[in-house]
Design brief:
By secondary structure, this protein is of the alpha+beta class. The chain has helices at about 1-20, 30-75, 80-100, 110-130; strands at about 140-145, 150, 155-160, 165-170, 175-180, 190-195, 200-205, 210-215. It has an eight-stranded antiparallel barrel with strand order 1-2-3-4-5-6-7-8.
Length: about 220
Amino acid sequence: MARYLSLFAFLVCSLRICVAQEASDDDSFQSQVAKTAVAKFDERLRFLDQKLQEQIALAEKTLRSDLESALSEAVEAKDFAEANRISALLDSKLKAFVEERTKTNPGTDGDEQQIAKLKEKLAELESREQSKPPIDPVVGRWDYSNGNVCDYTQEGFVVLRGKRIGLWAKVENNQYLVAFLRTFADGSSEELMLHPDGKHATSVSSKSSVQLKRIVQ
């Protein structure tokens, strides 16, 4: 689209140069017919100039709308690198775009407000990501080798088949205490030792010792 608009602009300029060179002074024509022909041609060029500017303005408006949608998607997907790239492009075009629009519609600042809101949301999400505590090594899915596969969540829950059956808490480095609900295992507790490889663990209760294997998702 941009290539066609550039070619169109070049052709319009070329026509103007040719006319200026060959008929720089329409008073040199004595006949009214010739003068009218040149006047019509000039009017046609002005019309083409107007349409060209309209097409460029429409293309810029469409580009901005598409980029704003892309920025929203990047923010929602937490793709901060892409969001920053799109935001930088919008910033570089924003001033000229707003100036052009205020020539015909003074006081319109919807585009500035939209970009400001998206950038504010982006900054908020980045702040949340930075303030999040690191994921504990025990978080993940563990196979108890007895038919039970439990999820240890970042929030401190132990989940079996979609139901919370207990809580876990870190006691020391790679050592955890797991307390089960009364509705599961009679409310018993166990100690969990995470192995150095992070792929295995040992669960020790008052009744037994079980070797756990991490399931990589």
